[in-house]
Design a protein that fits this description.
CATH architecture of one domain in chain A: Orthogonal Bundle
Order of helices and strands of chain A: HHHHHHHHHHH
Largest interface: A-B, 84 and 83 residues
CATH class of one domain in chain A: Mainly Alpha
Order of helices and strands of chain C: EEEHEEEHHHEHEHEEHHEEEEEEEEEE
Shape of chain C: elongated
Strand order of the largest sheet of chain C: 6-7-8-3-9-10
Helix content of chain A: over 70%
Distance between the termini of chain A: 36 Å
CATH topology of one domain in chain A: MetI-like fold
Helix content of chain C: 10-25%
Number of strands of chain C: 20
Number of strands of chain A: 0
Radius of gyration of chain C: 24 Å
CATH superfamily of one domain in chain A: MetI-like
Distance between the termini of chain C: 33 Å
Largest sheet of chain A: none
Chains: A mainly alpha, B mainly alpha, C alpha+beta
Largest sheet of chain C: 6 strands, mixed
Structural class of chain C: alpha+beta
Oligomer: heterotrimer
Strand content of chain C: 35-45%
Number of helices of chain A: 11
């Protein structure tokens, strides 16, 4: 074969990954800038991280976002597991096609529309039932559960489809009652998917600006809402610093999860 | 506990949740799209009202739809959104397909790492990714600084707050959605197919055009829908990267809700998007998914 | 003991099991034999309680179990895929059923050890299923079901996933285990060798019904229908009309010009009827010259010889154009002219 200095696939990959990572790299570099500029290097400094650590409103927003993300991811995973089992196991019940449409629809619905419709629901419910009393963390958590439920179901269902149906038959055949079969066979086998679904839901919730903006109220500023209003006012290396912290945490978490999944896949496929 | 009770306990919670927090809101949105704006709380008039005699009277009308459809401001918003989303889809495809193809042809271990690297930005904050481009495209941003330093331009060029910036931002944000489904189909393709094509005398380019490409169409279609639909309704990117006169549906809707407080017209705008963009594409996607299930 | 009474099950209008009645005695090794889609697996799943019958009754040891859920039946199954729980060790897989019965811990350990010893897996108790070979997995599946001491053990194609050599070895092992534990075995298989070599009785199934029920020898040598004869083993066929019937033999005039064929038949039969005669390949002898008059004889030419190691399968082209398969230990070469001969009691007369 003739050695060539460049090849088409390599060029494409280099271009694609530069496109994906250069902006992030620039962002991270300028979080350590001495001056206010995010384009001209003025020396190395941690000052923006120090400023971030003292930015109480932003930290408060981050804490609120983490709580909402944890709650809605947990709720979505519980509901999503039930939904995945329903779709995969109960082939016939009234409303099945409506149900599967409802499970897919949030995935393709533009966020502004989901957000607006939930805002209208909460306003209507409040005028009708007196609940929810204004909008805030609770309504955001409900909205995020609805959004992430669809994603959680997709992830959990993908795993459920792969499971040998004979495993449940075998467990029942060996005397396992339905709940025991679910607890000791289905649930442990779904655990990796449930974990992945939880992480995905957590991330989506933590990341969401649009839906949260529609259903939030005064005093319930989530992290994206805080970042958004700050960004609208102009760029600041403090946001770069926050982004860097975010990237490091998420990067570490996903890389660990990725390696873990990769290993377990490889072990399962190992020949014997 | 008998079978029926157990089944009910499994089916009802997620079904009820989706009905109450997804289906009912859409129905309410439709109802409110028939109402008129009001300056109170809630900021719309009731659709059914008791008149003086105490009987229920229907107050809804299609006025909001009429004004959305006749006002060129809204019409431009729709057409621009659809056009931009279509161009973004094409750009994602142009960049995403060769990239995915190159990824799929690397060694198994490299492949997973490369795919993971495409997904990684998706797991980090969307807002932060958009923000990164502000820093780069700003008048006193990174790109202009470099251009000035290298003498490519004499004074900073306005890159930010332009259509160009919106395209960059959209492609950047939605590229992973194109890569994943295409990767899924390319990965499932038996490499023996290309060997067979080569064995039968097909030039690699021919084999690509006549074997690989047709077989990856379902993935291309799925990826295109995954990019197109959210791009049509996108709010953050046009808001942060586009100029103030840059109108897309998401931004229109946002302005009607938060600035003008005209909720009924916002609802009408949303219903039209659902009816003419989301629903047809969702149906197409569903039929693709179903066909793939049948085939595997 | 298990008794099935006109059991039926259909899926979307297709009768998977169509009115099956049978009785399996204690200690039997009973096989359900048939091609894919004949309903044998559905029948097994009905007995296990993994499917609900549309109609009919399932009675196990005198108790009506038709509507009992799987977890309440004194029946355990060895699945075709083995269905070992991938997240549990061999020992925990085997102990699973005993845990469900709330057996005392020490008793569980004792019984698990005992059964793993029986299937020669005592050294593998801490392995996970993916660390086992196919044969070991199969034995874990067997142990996991047997440790429950079921009244009946159901086996769904237990040997199908093994390679040929191991399959033949495991066959004897399965039979030994069955003899040692004395449990009633009901096995589903599509493999006639497996059914013939293992079973005390076989039910041949087709289209959801039992078409013949009998001992392996009955099924093989006295098939009751063309279907059974064709499905179980190889068969050579001669069609013809009955010309004479006396003293327990019937003479049939071949419609293909193979002359008159005499076949043993004790059932009364009318002359003039159209019948078919079946002869197994190993019951035919090849001879260079026409043999004694009391044997059937057809002339032909050797068209192909397949050497199988322990014997040869020979394809003989008859004057009628038909092909006959003959199994022999002798050596023959292609194009040789031969006489095919067999005794009247080697043939089977069938009118269906």
């Amino acid at each position: 074969m003739i050695r060539r200095g460049f090849s088409f696939p390599l060029t494409v990959l280099a271009f694609g990954y530069s496109f994906l990572y250069v902006p992030i790299g620039v962002l991270v570099i300028f979080s350590f800038n001495e001056t206010r500029s995010i384009a001209v290097w003025g020396g190395f400094s941690f000052k923006w991280y120090a400023a971030l650590a003292e930015n109480t409103p932003l930290l408060g927003a981050a804490w609120l976002s983490l709580q909402i993300a944890a709650i809605s991811a947990t709720a979505a995973v519980v509901l999503g597991t039930l939904a995945a089992c329903t779709i995969e196991r109960y082939r016939r019940f009234p409303g099945r096609s409506l149900f599967s449409a409802l499970l897919l629809a949030p995935l393709v619905m533009p966020e502004v529309i989901t957000g607006l419709s939930l805002l209208l629901l909460f306003v209507w419910l409040e005028s009708w039932l007196g609940w929810p009393d204004g909008r805030g963390a609770t309504t955001i958590a409900i909205a995020h559960t609805t959004l992430t439920l669809a994603y959680a179901t997709v992830v959990i269902r993908a795993r459920l489809v792969q499971l040998d149906p004979d495993l449940r038959s075998a467990a029942a055949d060996l005397g396992g009652r339905p709940f025991a079969v679910f607890r000791s066979i289905t649930l442990p086998l779904l655990a990796p998917a449930i974990g992945a679904a939880w992480l995905l839901g957590f991330t989506l919730s933590l990341d969401d600006l649009v839906i949260a903006s529609f259903v939030s109220g005064p005093g319930s500023t989530t992290l994206p809402i805080a970042i958004f209003s700050s960004v609208r006012l102009g760029v600041s290396p403090q946001i770069n610093a926050l982004a860097t912290v975010f990237l490091v945490v998420v990067g570490l978490a996903t890389t660990t999860a990725g390696i873990f999944i990769y290993r377990s896949v490889r072990r399962r496929n190992a020949p014997h | 506990m008998n079978d029926r009770v157990r089944r009910t306990l499994v089916v009802v919670p997620p079904l009820a949740w989706l009905l109450v927090f997804f289906a009912v809101p859409l129905a309410i949105m439709f109802a409110i799209s028939l109402a008129d704006p009001a300056s109170g709380v809630p900021p719309y008039t009731p659709i059914v009202r008791r008149d003086v005699a105490g009987t229920l009277a229907w107050m809804g009308d299609l006025e909001n739809y009429a004004s959305v459809l006749s006002d060129s401001y809204y019409a431009r918003g729709y057409l621009d959104s659809i056009q931009i989303a279509a161009i973004v889809t094409l750009l994602c495809l142009t960049l995403g397909f060769p990239m995915t193809y190159a990824i799929a042809r690397t060694k198994a271990a490299t492949k997973l790492v490369l795919l993971f690297l495409v997904m990684l930005p998706f797991w980090t904050s969307f807002l932060i990714r958009v923000y990164a481009w502000i820093g780069i495209l700003n008048t006193n941003g990174y790109l202009n600084t470099i251009f000035l330093a290298w003498g490519i331009v004499d004074e900073p060029i306005p890159l930010l707050y332009s259509e160009f910036a919106v395209y960059i931002g959209l492609v950047y944000a939605y590229l992973p959605f194109m890569v994943l489904p295409i990767f899924a189909v390319l990965e499932r393709q038996d490499p023996a197919l290309l060997e067979a094509a080569a064995d039968l005398g097909a030039h690699p380019w021919n084999a690509f055009v006549r074997v690989t490409l047709p077989l990856s169409l379902p993935g291309v279609l799925a990826g295109s829908i995954l990019v197109f639909v959210p791009a049509v309704g996108e709010f953050v990117i046009p808001e942060l990267l586009g100029g103030s006169d840059f109108v897309m549906i998401g931004r229109l809707l946002w302005t009607e809700v938060f600035a003008n407080r005209d909720w009924p017209i916002a609802a009408a705008i949303a219903i039209l998007v659902v009816a003419f963009v989301v629903a047809p594409l969702a149906l197409i996607e569903r039929s693709i998914a179903r066909r793939q299930i049948v085939r595997t | 003991m298990i008794r099935l009474e006109t059991l039926a099950k259909s899926y979307g209008g297709v009768h998977a099991v169509d009115g099956v009645s049978l009785q399996v005695e204690p200690g039997e090794f009973f096989s359900l034999l048939g091609g894919s889609g004949c309903g044998k697996t559905t029948l097994l799943r009905l007995i296990a309680g993994l499917e609900k019958a549309d109609s009919g009754r399932i009675v196990i040891d005198g108790i009506d179990m038709t509507d009992a859920p799987a977890y309440e039946r004194p029946v355990n199954t060895v699945f075709q895929s083995y269905a070992l729980f991938p997240h549990m060790t061999v020992a925990r897989n085997v102990a699973f059923g005993l845990h469900q019965e709330r057996v005392e811990r020490r008793e569980i350990d004792r019984r698990v050890d005992e059964i793993l010893h029986l299937v020669h897996l005592e050294d593998f108790s801490q392995r996970k299923p993916h660390e086992l070979s196919g044969g070991q997995k199969q034995r874990v599946a067997l142990a996991r079901a047997l440790v429950k001491r079921p009244k009946i053990l159901l086996l769904d194609e237990p040997l199908a996933a093994l390679d040929r050599k191991l399959r033949e070895k495991t066959r004897f092992e399965l039979k030994t285990i069955q003899r040692n534990v004395g449990t009633t075995f009901v096995m589903v298989t599509h493999d006639q060798d497996e059914a013939l070599s293992l079973s005390s009785r076989i039910a041949v199934m087709d289209a959801g019904r039992i078409v013949q029920l009998g001992s392996p020898r009955d099924i093989y040598y006295r098939p009751s229908s063309v279907f059974v004869a064709d499905f179980v083993g190889n068969a050579n066929w001669i069609e013809g009309t009955v010309v004479a019937a006396r003293d327990g033999t019937v003479a049939v005039k071949s419609s293909d010009g193979n002359g008159n064929i005499v076949v043993a038949c004790t059932d009364p039969i009318a002359t003039g009827g159209t019948v078919r005669i079946m002869v197994r390949p190993e019951r035919i002898t090849l001879a260079p010259i026409r043999p004694a008059a009391d044997e059937n004889a057809i002339h032909g030419t050797i068209a192909n010889v397949a050497f199988l190691g322990d014997s040869s399968l020979i394809e003989v082209r008859l004057a009628s154009g038909q092909s006959f398969a003959v199994r022999t230990l002798d050596r023959w070469s292609v194009a040789t002219e031969v006489w095919l001969t067999w005794r009247p009691n080697a043939g089977v007369l069938l009118n269906r």
